[in-house]
Specification:
This protein is 35% helix and 31% strand. Strands 1, 2, 3, 4, 5, 6 and 8 form a 7-stranded mixed sheet that branches. It has a 4-stranded antiparallel sheet with strand order 9-10-7-11, with helices on one face. A hairpin with a 3-residue loop joins β5 and β6. The protein has 2 domains: 159 residues, Ribosomal Protein S5, domain 2 (2-Layer Sandwich), CATH 3.30.230; 119 residues, GHMP kinase, C-terminal domain (Alpha-Beta Plaits).
């Protein structure tokens, strides 16, 4: 059986860290949005006596294809929890930049979970799939379902929100690399280890603007607590953020723990011109 799945990139319209949890993890609150930039996965599934997974990656961006790959881990976890031994081969046509704050690895893992669940006739329900996603990473549960959602805890507590207004999005990746661990270290340093628990942005204002589909208010409520400490370490990304603003973006923001930045445009022609001016992998897309 061959199954095709799209793995959509995500943007963080809002990302805050409220403090540290008792288990040592950071308590996150985020509004995430899927966009049209996507990897395409081809998942070939055959019955087998023992579970096995192989990967092929094509396209501009390369990732490891062994057991450390999140899509590989997702396939093995699904077969284990569904008690369904299969021979699985996943081909990923990679368009989402790697280690960029766009959730590409999480999106691929989510797409594999969806594909194998389709192959099994829906053996696992949505709630169980979300549990598997949470075991793989904090962005995977969101990437399973997509659209616009508020995600809390470690990302596993979700509720849908009104959709982003019809805007063009310019995504500008950077050649710089900063690991999630490095981003959290810089954040902890900037916020004294989050010794107090509090909100840093205006989530209520953002949700209200989405509900009213008020673009003017929305653009003033975008927030990412990682942006200042991470862009201080990533001057190329910081410059791209400044250029997006000068090229007519209504608002700009870094996504996730970075370093990719994006801009929201009311005019598609202006967005296309901005992406062309930026070059270096910049693309235009829309919310999905």
């Amino acid at each position: 059986m061959r199954i095709y799945e799209k793995a959509y990139a995500k943007l963080n319209l809002y990302l805050d860290v409220l403090g540290r949890r008792a288990d040592g993890f950071h308590s996150l609150r985020s509004v995430m949005q899927t966009v049209g930039l996507a990897d395409t996965l081809t998942v070939d599934v055959m019955a087998a006596g023992e579970p096995s997974v192989t990967l092929t990656v094509r396209g501009r961006y390369r990732v490891p294809v062994g057991e450390g790959n999140l899509a590989h881990r997702a396939a093995m976890l699904y077969m284990q929890k569904a008690a369904l031994p299969l021979r699985v081969h996943v081909t990923i046509d990679k368009r989402i930049p790697v280690a960029a704050g766009l959730g590409g690895g999480s999106a691929d893992a989510a797409a594999v979970l969806r594909a194998l669940n389709r192959a099994s006739g829906g053996r696992l329900g949505e709630g169980r799939l979300a549990e598997l996603g949470a075991a793989l990473g904090s962005d995977v549960p969101f990437c399973l379902f997509g659209h616009t959602r508020l995600c809390e805890g470690r990302g596993e507590v979700m509720r849908p929100l009104p959709a982003l207004p019809p805007l063009s999005v310019v995504i500008a990746p950077s050649s710089e690399r900063i690991s999630t661990r490095e981003a959290f270290a810089a954040l902890d340093l900037a916020h004294s280890g989050f010794s107090e628990t509090r909100e840093h942005g205006d989530l209520e204002g953002l949700v209200d603007a989405l509900s009213r589909r008020n673009t003017a208010d929305l653009t003033t409520k975008l927030y990412n607590i990682f942006e200042e400490p991470v862009l201080a370490l990533c001057p190329i990304a910081a410059e791209k953020r400044r250029r997006l603003a000068s090229l007519g973006a209504l608002a700009t923001l870094m996504s996730g723990s970075g370093p990719t930045v994006f801009g929201l445009f009311s005019d598609e022609t202006a967005a296309l011109a901005a992406a062309k001016a930026l070059g270096d992998g910049a693309v235009t897309t829309t919310a999905v």
